[in-house]
Structure prediction request, 206 residues.
Amino acid sequence: MLTIAVLPWVVFMLCASITLVLVRVCRGPNDVDRVLAIDVLTLLTIALLVTLGIARDERHYFEAAALLAVVACVSTLAIARYLLRGRVIE
Amino acid sequence: MSALPWWLDALIALSLLVGAVFSLLAAWALFRLEEVRLRLHVASLAGSVGLGGVLLGSALYFGYQHSMLPREGLILLFVLLTTPLSAQALGNAVSALYPHAVPVVPSSAESKGEGQ
Prediction:
């Protein structure tokens, strides 16, 4: 099966991406870099969860991925607003 | 897993690979580029494409295998709706916090000519 043969490579590439983005999180010169890298990190985690769901033929990983998508967006917007204004809620 | 026809199998594998390769490209660019705004551009572009590929593969797989309505489109719609919003907000933060940071975009001839 082609999908089963491809899945380890997909997981490997996603893990390599997560490592690169984590280096950027540690090394980022300023706050915006770190927020951006953590946002990308969340997208990569969603992709990894969905891939794991295919590999195990398990539907429940999807719920965690959906939840993570919602939380990632709201938290990124809130942190960007905090960086811009100094407070989140007016 | 055994009931997948070969074309659907190939399509799922292809979309998963495309998504993973685009994620790797985005992460490599995020690691490599040297200015905030370039990284912002790359992350907001390629991150959503990479996630879209993986989600398309998952939607095809689960839609065929369990004959259920795939809800991956929900995640994709949400990410595609909110990635520009967060990119805009982060860009505003960059402009407000670091107003003197000029984006470094060397042309290929320049960077080849005056390499440091």
User: Anything to note?
Assistant: Helices of chain A lie at 2-27, 31-56, 61-85. The CA atoms of residues 60 and 89 of chain A lie 34 Å apart. The mean pLDDT of chain A is 88. Residues 2-85 of chain A form one domain.
